[in-house]
Amino acid sequence: MSFKFYAVSTGPSGPDFITLGAVRAVSRARAVFYPVTGSGGGESHIAFDCVREAVDLSGKKCVPVRFSMTRDGKRTELEYEGLSRMVASELAFGDVAFVSIGDVSVYSTAARISSLVASLGFECVFVPGVASFSAAACACTMDLASAGREIRIVPGDASFESGALQSFIADADAKVIMKSPRHLSEIVALVVSSGLSSRAALVQKAGGEGQRIFSGDELSRLPSPLEDSYMSVLLIKSL
């Protein structure tokens, strides 16, 4: 029998976003891998917390995974390759799930791990979930894009550092600015100075405990640096 690797989306935060498909995939898995950030009392494992409230994990092998969060691409790739080999060793005994916040098809470590596991000859399955920007737009009841308008998903830090962000936000289409842990304050300031505050909202920890929403003139009064920048999505509504 050939066992499968499941890249499982848990949604942005909290068990309310777990889909029936995610519950089924984790339930059938023998081993569950999950990312951990921080250390000591500051450890965070959001995806795992979501899953264990929705699925009985007793009897399963639950494996925490730490990544260095370095900007060194070679080091990151070596870490991913090491993890893929660990996953492959577990696939000799049963199905394996890797749980990840948001949707695994968008800016997800789980997707990269899946491609490496597939290259080792195993079948991989993506289990879809609620993307963070969808939850963020719903949290502030924003009709993100009107008919005929595009929605552009922008990696905030990368676009800011390259100087491309100003041109990205200039047109009338909708924008989703994610992945901004280093430059979120500067990006919010750029949106404000570009006169886009009336169409913009910053959502932190969308749908979960501690959710915060800032919009309109509130964006110009935010402290710098901003807390929870990793779990933040900046939305700009289309005209």
Mind explaining what this structure looks like?
The strands form two sheets. A five-stranded parallel beta sheet has the order 3-2-4-1-5, sandwiched between helices. It has a five-stranded mixed beta sheet with strand order 6-7-10-8-9, with helices on both faces. It has eight helices and ten strands. It has two domains: about 5-125, Cobalt-precorrin-4 Transmethylase, domain 1, CATH 3.40.1010.10; about 130-235, Methyltransferase, Cobalt-precorrin-4 Transmethylase, Domain 2 (2-Layer Sandwich). The protein is of the alpha/beta class and about 240 residues long. Helices cover about 30% and strands about 20% of the residues. The radius of gyration is 19 Å and the shape is elongated. The mean pLDDT is about 90. A hairpin with a 7-residue loop joins β8 and β9 (about 210-215). It has helices at about 20-30, 45-55, 75-90, 110-120, 130-140, 155-160, 165-170, 185-195, and strands at about 5-10, 30-35, 60-65, 95-100, 125, 150-155, 175-180, 200-205, 210-215, 230-235. α3 (about 75-90) packs across α4 (about 110-120). The longest helix is centred in the middle third of the chain and has 18 residues, at about 75-90.
